[in-house]
Input
Amino acid sequence: MPDNSYTKICKTEALRENVGIKIRIQQKDIGIFKINGEIFAVSNVCPHNRASVLHNGQLTGYEITCPHHGWVFDLKTGECLKGYKEIHKYDTIIENGEIWIKLKD
Ligand code: FES
Output
């Protein structure tokens, strides 16, 4: 079992390839994505306008485009590729088909 900095969020089978979901946990909105079988978790809140919408963005490979005004983020790093502020990328672990996310440092 992962250490206590990780929180279990859902089963991997709950996610569909290339379809983002939003979860709210410990007052954080987090976007979860499955791409090529890998899980990515980032802040779901677009830093442009503080809108919790990234799970509904357009996926192109590992890049997500915000559906509001088109800022683009790299889901592997959280880097902002179009716009000027990155998003937080959360570490994840998969164990026994369950996704765990690191919420604490
Ligand atoms: S709210 Fe995301 S680009 Fe404006």
Observations:
- The chain has one domain: 6-102.
- Residues 6-102 form a domain with the Rieske Iron-sulfur Protein fold (CATH 2.102.10.10).
